[in-house]
Input
Amino acid sequence: MANSAFVLSSGSGTDGRSVRATKTQTSHGFSAGSVIRFEQVPDGTTGTFKLASANSGISAEAIGIVESVSASGDEFTVVYSGEIDTTNFITNGTNGVTGSDVWFLDTALAGGLTATAPVSSGQIIKPVLTLVSGSSKSRGLVTNYLGTVIGGSNTVSLDSVHPVGEIIAFAGNTSDVPTGWQLCDGSTLDVLGDYADYYSRVGTKYGAQVEMVFTVTSGHTGFIGNTATQTVSSVAIPSLVMDWGPVGGGGTATILLDQDVLTGITGGETVGDNTGYPHGLIYQGGTNITVGTGGAANNAYSTSSATVKYVKTPDLRARTLVGATSDYVVPWSPRSSGMDGFTAGQIGGAEDADTVVVTSDGAQRVYAAKGATDASLRQPFMATHYIIRTTSTAQAALVDGLSVSLSDAGLTNHDTSDVVAGDINVYDAVSSNYKAVKLLDRYPADVANFENSFQIESTNGNISVGHKGGDHPLHVKNSSNAKIRIEDTTNSVTFDLFSDDDRAYTRTNSNHPLWLGTNTVPILKLHDSSTGYLSEFLYSADIAGNLGVTGTATIAGVTKFQAQAYSEIHNKSTGLNVTPNFNDSNVQKINCTGTTVDVKDPANGLGGGMYSLIFTNTQNSVVNFTWGAEYKWANGIKPDLIRANSEVIVSMVAQSASLFYCTWAEDFS
Output
């Protein structure tokens, strides 16, 4: 014990130096040094360990630090307070904790330790580990001090001031009920949401909605809208079937039952109730339930479970309050029974009474109550709403005696729970609160650079990206590859407008066509095909200037030229042989430099194409021709030679890509 930082009395969960426990939880994900918290379910019976974080009051409710994790991974040792071995802790990528005496709960890494105290608004300063001897990395003390919220609005418990379950008169409008309160109108509250405290304290005494799983008889359907009844603690509980999960041919089904204390239960709290639910009778699993169906009379069904999903607020519309029986019982005192014996949640009384004449002497009449509505028994009254406290926490603020100076970045005047720096908040009139609009992924680290690279001009609405000029409705600048992209994620189609190097592009991706048109009518379609890129004019097209087409142009309709339409002459020279390639041009001029020219079958001819070959001989001697088999000649006569200093022109029409009908002429002197 001489080396211990302090001494604890030995006992359950202690080793004389610390308070610790070994826990088992499947797939917990913890490691040595993880700061953990415990999150309990609303019924208060179960819960799970989770990683703590200093970014909110709830997530910073740490209970201890994990010292070690078993080899199996499911078992871990947590130290709640006192001495802890920090040898296997990992901080800054190394084992142990070094460089600081005090370690705080981290804001960014869940369950993490940091040597730097949080400084941002809404974060929690919570020291959880102090090293025993300076910066020694092997032993520390789990301190787990109460954390302090930095700036912003603080969530505090007002349960001692306005406890959950408190009922007060409210003179405001029903649309303006304060946060944390609900109208006393029999409305439902989710027990797994924000109203766990209400369920724990008030329970089901004013009604509930229960999910019941039961075995349904084959052929029984139509449960919705019918009445279900089960007897609990000698009291028959009637309820309305709100919803059900149908099955075919018998089996297990689920129904949602609405229990209303105003339709048959006159007493709220019960004595000796063993249903396991707080303060009220509620359906039980494992017993029979009687339910009416659309096709049969009331039938008894065997249930397997019953789960409270919603509880209700008391319905005080047109009702007044009366004191209930005290829980303090003195057998010999008449007051221990609560005077007339009212129990909390009990509903009773009559609004009005009819009257009849019993006797009459002309001046005086005696009346007796009959039980209808002709005579009012109410004293003078003023109607108002009742509201009931349903949550224990609220936003607290100092309203007097405090002088505060905050920068704009430190102000939060809304109740958005997941707001982060960089959000823009807008007011939601339907839910009556502010909500975050995520325009930016984070608050810019370099504010000046951000403001110089993005701007919305307030005077004209122009948007500038990459600069702050505001000179066009949308102006994008970048040093290279300035781009605007529009994307259809359903069909994986993107449309890009961008400029780069010495050109500008308009394109789609993945070979999707690009349509140009007016309104919903496409005029020009640019798309890819197996033979290359195609451009299709789907309607008439008027082209005022020159039109250059480097690929294939398919024209389905009439083509009218008011000016010239021509092919540029392609020039080449040959001494022995030549293969005309009609992809070069429809008109080709061939200068013959030898004594014999072998004209090969042409390449890339298309059926229906019209072509011309101009052979020129500038020599003083004759040049002889030989021709490929695909050339077919009118009347079987083909040119065999070209005279000195002369020309021969061959004109042809392609019947197919391999058959050309030809005529020829010479001597154009």
